[in-house]
## 1
Amino acid sequence: MNKAEILIIDDEPQIRRLLEITLESNDFKVRNAETGKDGLLLAANHPPELIILDLGLPDISGHEVLKNLKGWYNKSIIILSVQNSEEDIVNALDNGATDFLSKPFRTAELMARIRAAIRRNQFEVNSEQHAFGELNMDYISRTLTKNGEFIKLTSTEFNLLALLTKNEGRVLTHQYILKEIWGVGYQTETQYLRVFIGTLRKKIEDDPNHPKRIITESGIGYRFL
C-alpha cells in the first residue's frame, strides 16, 4: 500500500465512501471524519500527506478548519465542495487550500489533482534544478532552458515563474502572487500581473494564445501545469 495517507473531512457518508473506495483502489491509506473538529483532531494526531476538505461541515465551517490548519499544517489541502462561488474559492485558497474542486466531481480529475499535490509536497524547493517537460529551471543560477536552449528572463519574470513552478498544479490567487512578487502595495494591480503573465507565455509556451503551462483560473488566479 502507498505510504501516503489522505484524510477526508466531509459530512456526507456517500461521498466519504466513494472517496475511500477510489483512494484505496489507488493504494492510498485513508482516514475520514464527518465534522471539522474530528478532522482537526485526526490531522493533529496522524498528520496526513494530503487533506480533502468540504466547506459545508455541520459544526464549524471548512474555512474555519483551514484557518486552524494554516498555523501548523504545511502539506496539501484540496477543497471538495458545493460551495463554489468565486468568493468561496478565493477565500479558501488565501486561507491555505492548495486546490479546489466542485461537487459533483469526476474521480479521474480528482486523482490527477491529488497526484500533482503529492508531487508538490515532495518537491524540494531548494533543489538546484527541476524539469517540467521541455522546461528546466535552475533555481540557483536563476536560468531557464527550453529543449536545451536558454530562455532570457528578466529578474521579475524569473521570480514569477519560480513561484508558479514551485507550486506546480496549485491555483495561486492574483492577490497572493502580487504580494509575493511585488509586495503588499501591489495586491490590487491585477492588470500589472496580467502583463507579466503574457510576456512569460510568449517565452515558454509553444502557442501563447492557447497556453498549456500557465493556465488562467478565471477571476481567481493562475496555475502552472
## 2
Amino acid sequence: MDSPDSFTVDELQRDLMTLMTDGIVGRMSAFSGEWAEAMREDMMTAFWSAIQRQGGTVGRGPRRWYVEIHPEEFAGFVELVTHPWVMAMCENTLGKDYQIVEIGFDIPFQGAKFQPWHRDFPSPPETYVDRRITSLAFNLTGVDVTDDMGPFEIALGTQYADGREWMHEMFPAKEIWPSFQNKAVRKFPKRGDISCRSALTVHRGTAHASPVARPVMVLGVDAPGAGHAELHDMMVTQDFSDRLPVSVKKHLVCRVVDKLVPVTQKHDIEGLVMGADPA
C-alpha cells in the first residue's frame, strides 16, 4: 500500500455511530487499486486450488462458494489487519483484546441466485438484549461492482433483531422477508473500498448475471468470548509467525505449524445451499 489511510477523530466517531445504527459502514479508497487487484489474484488462485479438493469449498447457493484460507495465503493480510481504520473499528467496537478469527472469501459466478435473507450466526443476548456488537466482518471487493454482478444487499438496522424464532436462529421466515426488503440497500463498492458490518445484520447476495466473477475478501473479528474461532482453523507457519508485527500477533487466533494444511471448511451455513426467489 502506498500510504496509510488517515482519518480524524470526528470521522471515526461518525463511522462508529453509523455501524451501531445501520449495522454497516464503509470507507472508500482505503487501499490502492493495485493492492486490491493483487488481492483479487490471490482469491482466484486460492479458489481454483480449493475447488479441486474435497472440503476445499463450501456452497453458499448455486454458483456461489465460500473459501477459508490461511493468513499467509493472502499477501496483503498484514496490510489489511494493521490498517488504521480496521484497527480503530475493532478496538472501539470489540475492545482492546479483539480477536482475528477468520480470513476467507465469498465468490459468486454467473448464474448465482438470490440468497435467502440471513445472518451469519445466531445472535447472542449481548446483542439482542444489550445492543452490543460482539463480532465484525470486514469485506473488500476484488472488482468494481456493477448492478449485474449480484451486489450485496443488506437490511439496515437489523443487527439487533432477536431472531431466536428463525430457522437455525439465522433465517427469518419468508413471510416476513418484505420487512427486510423495505430496509434494504444494495452496495456497489469499488476496488480499494472496505466495509465493516455486524455479521448479525440481515443480508443476502443477489442474482449474478455478469460473466465476471465477484470475489469478496472477508475478515472476521470477535470480541473476547464471542466464540466464533471454533468455526475456523487458521494456521500460520513458524516463519510467518516470526515475521508478524506484535500488533498483529497478539490478536490473531491461530495455530503455529511446521507446514500449512489446506483448510477443510467448517462454517457450512445449511440454509444457503439452495438459492431463493427474490422477495
## 3
Amino acid sequence: MRHPHRDYGSAGLVGLCTPQANPTVEAEFRLLMPDTVSPVVTRLTSRADEPRQRLIDYIETLAASLDAFDTLATDVIAFACTGSAYLVGAAREHALVELEQERRGVPVISATAAIDSALRHIGARRIALYAPYPDWLVEAATAYWSARGYQVARCGRVRTQSADTRSIYALGSADARRMLAAEAPAGVDAVVLSGTGMPTLPLVLDHPEFDAAPVLSSNWCLAGSVADALGVTIDLDEVRRRLAAARGPDSGTEV
C-alpha cells in the first residue's frame, strides 16, 4: 500500500484523460481497477466540429487538460484516446507524452502504448484490427500499427450510425461481438479492438465465437499498464462479478 494515509486511492490515484463525450472509459476503469485504486477524471476537450480536428486537439492540448487537475497530484496518468495517436503519429504522440511525464513527474501512459506493450508481452506480430471508426481513421490506425512493426493481416469497421466519431458512444460490446463472429480472422496472433468509447469488457472476457487468438481492447490494455505502473493486480473474478452486477439480471450474457 503506497499511501496508507489516504481514505481512498491508497494504492494509487489515476489521472484518467477521456474524450469529452466518452461514457465508457470511466465505467470500464471502475470495473477493472481494484478498490484501492481511485480514478480521477479530466475531459479532453475541443470545440472543433470536424472529427479529425477534434481528435488532434485532444492530444495537442493534453497539457491544458491535465492543468484542470489544479493541485491534485496523481500517481499515474492514462491518456484514453487511440484516434488522436493515429492522426498525429507515434513520434508526435511520444513527444507530447514525454513532455507531460517530465512536467508532472509521474508515468503518463497512452492507450496505444498500452496496446503495444500488451502485444509485445504475448509476442504478437500479426494482428487483426477492428474499430468503430470511419474509413479515414481506420486507414490511419492501420498505418500507425504497420509503422510500429506489426502486420495488420485483417482490418474491419464496427459500423456506427454516422461518420461523426462521437456516434461510437452509442455502440455496445454486442456490436463488436457480431463482427468478430462474422469475420473469424484466421492466422493472427491477436485481435485488437481499438477505440476507448465502445464497450468491450464482456467480449474481451468471454468470446466463444472466436477462440483462435487473444482479444485485446484499448481500455483493457490501458488498465493493465496502469495496474503494472502502480504495482497492483487486476482480479478477473472480481471484474466478472462487477460486470455482471453492472449489466443487471436481464443482460442475457454471462461473463
## 4
Amino acid sequence: MIFAIALLLGILAAVLMVLLVAYARSRERIDLLYRLRMYCTEEIVVKNELPVISRIMDFVRRTATPLGRFKPIELYGIRMRRAGLPILGSEFAAILLISALAMGVFTFFLTLDETYAIITAIAIVIIEDVMVALRIRRRRSAFVNQLGDCLATVADSMRAGFSFTQSMEVIVRDMEPPISDEFARVMRDLSAGVSLERALEDMDRRVNSMEFSLVVTAVLIQRQVGGNLASILDTISETVVEHIKMQRELKTLTAQGRATAKTLAALPFVCLAGMYFFARENLMFFIENDIGRIAGVLAVISEAIGLYLVNRITNLEDV
C-alpha cells in the first residue's frame, strides 16, 4: 500500500513537472511581452496554442493576479529570470499553490490522513523549488563556462574595429545559450531605449555571477574614464579561465567531503521514515517522553551544526 502511494505520488509529481515545462515553453514565443504585460490594461491573446495548455495558462494567470500584489512574490520573479523561465514570479507562486493544494487534497482522499496530505503538499513545494534552484545553478555554471570564450570573442571583435554593441551582436549570433540569450535580452533592452549601463546592470542581476560582475564593472569604468577595453577584457578572460580551472580542481578534491555532507543530511530522515513505518513505538519515545524530546532537539541542533561546518569547509562559492 505504501509503495503504491509513493509510486502514484511520484507519477503525479512528474506530470506536474511536465505541465510546468510545457507551460514555460509555450511562453517562450511571447518572451518580448514579458515586461510589457505588466503595463497593459487589455488581455493579451496568444493564438495557435493547444486547448489544454491555453486553459492551464488562463487559470494560472487568474490565480496569479492577486498574488502579484504581495512584495515577497517579486523574489520569485528574480528567480524566474535567473532560471531562464519566461514566466512571472506571481505565476510560479500560483503554480506552487495549485499543485500543492491539488496533491494535498488528492493524498487526503487516497489515505484519509491529513498528516500525509500536509507532508505531500509541502514535499511538492520543496521539489518544485529545488528544481528551479538546480536550473539556476546549472544555467549560471554554463554561463560562467562560456564567459571566457565570450570575452575573447568580444576583444577580438573590438580589435577588428567593431564597437562594444556590435561585438555583443556577434555573441548573440555565434555563441550558444545561455550566454547568447542573455546578450540578446541586452540588445532588446537597447532597442527599447534603455542605456547600455542599465542593460548590463540588469543582466548582472539576472546572472548573479561574480565573474560577470567583474566584467560589468570594467566596462562601466572604461566608458567613464576611457582606456583599451579589448586589453582589459583579455585580462579578465584569462582570469576567468584560471578561476574555472581552480574551481574544478577544488571540486574534485572536496568530492568526498561533499558526499559525506549529503549522506549525513539524508541519513536521519531515512531513519525516521523507517522507524515511522516499521517501529513506530520507538519513534513515539522522541515525541511523548520528555527525555526523548530533549534528545531529539539536541540531535537536530547537533546535525545542523555539523552540516553547517561541513558545508563551510567544502563550499566553493566564495573561492
